[in-house]
What does this fold into?
Amino acid sequence: MLIIRHDEVRGILRGDEAAVLEIVRETYRRHDAGETAVPHSTFLRFPGDPANRIIGLPAYLGGDRPVAGMKWVASFPANLAVGLPRASATIVLNSMRTGRPEAFLEGATISATRTAASAAVAANVLLGRESGVSLIGCGLINFETLRYVAALAPVPEVTLFDTSAERAKEFGERVAALLPDARVTIASGAGEAVAAHDLLSIATTAIEPHLDLKGVRPGAVVLHISLRDIVPETILAARNVVDDVDHAVRERTSLHLAELRTGDRAFVHATLGGLLRGTAAIPDGESPLIFSPFGLGALDIAVARHVEEQARRRGLGTHVEGFLPE
It folds into this structure.
C-alpha cells in the first residue's frame, strides 16, 4: 500500500494545471461516451445535525488505463471558526487486475483541484474568452477555481463577496499575490458581485437557496459550484448545464428544487461532456448560462491516478508492507 500525504499531493499538483485540465476534459468525454461507472454518492448525515455530513463517492474510469476507487469526504462547516478547513477527505485506488487497494491518498486537495478544474473547463467552453471574475464565497474552492480559470485565460479584474468581511479581506490579499496584475475589489453585497462581470463563481456553505441573480449581465456564465445557492425560479429561467443530470438533480440542490416545482427536467439543456464531444448544444439567448456540477467521482479517481503515478515516478509516498494479507 502506498500512502500519499497532503504535502506530497499538493507538491505534485501545484504548477501542473495544464495536465489536470486535460485529465478533467478527457474524463468528461469518457463519461459522455459511457466509459465510466459513477453510482450515486452516499450521504452520511447525523440526527439533529443538518450542517455536517460525510459523503462516499465510488467510481470507475475506463480507457487504456482503467482505474476504480472511492472518495470519502467530510464537510463540517464549523471547522472554519476554529481554523480548520471545512472539508477533509481520503481517496483509495484499487487494482483493476486483483481489486486490491493499492494507494491511499489525502483527498481534500485532489477534490478541490478537480472541482476547480472542472469549473474552469466549463468557463472555457461556455464563455471562451478573457473576462473579469466575481467570486461569492471566499474559501478554498473559489481560490482554486480562480487559479484554474486564470490558467486558461487572463483575469484582469476580480470582485469578491463573503458574509465575513475579514475572510474577504484575507482572501483578497491572497488573490493579489496570485494575480498581481489583476484589480481586486471587495463588494459590499452579493448583488454587486453578481453584476460586476461576465463570469461568476459561487462556492459557499449554503444549504438553502438565497440568490436570485438579479442584475446578472446578459449571457453571463455562472459556475454554481455549491449547488444550493440559486433560487429555483432563476434556475428555471436560465440555460442550464450540468456534469450529469441524474447526479445534479437530487439531494435538494437548486436544480432538484426546480424539478419539484415543474415535475420534469426540461430546464437542463446540456452536459459538459456532451458539449466537449459535440453531442449536445445550448439554446441561443441572453439568459445566464449556469453550470451546476454535482461532482463526479470519476474526476477524483482520474486526478488521484495521476498523483499516484507521479508519486511512484518521483519516489514519493510511504510504502506500508503487510497492510493486506499475502
Summary: The chain is about 35% helix and 25% strand.
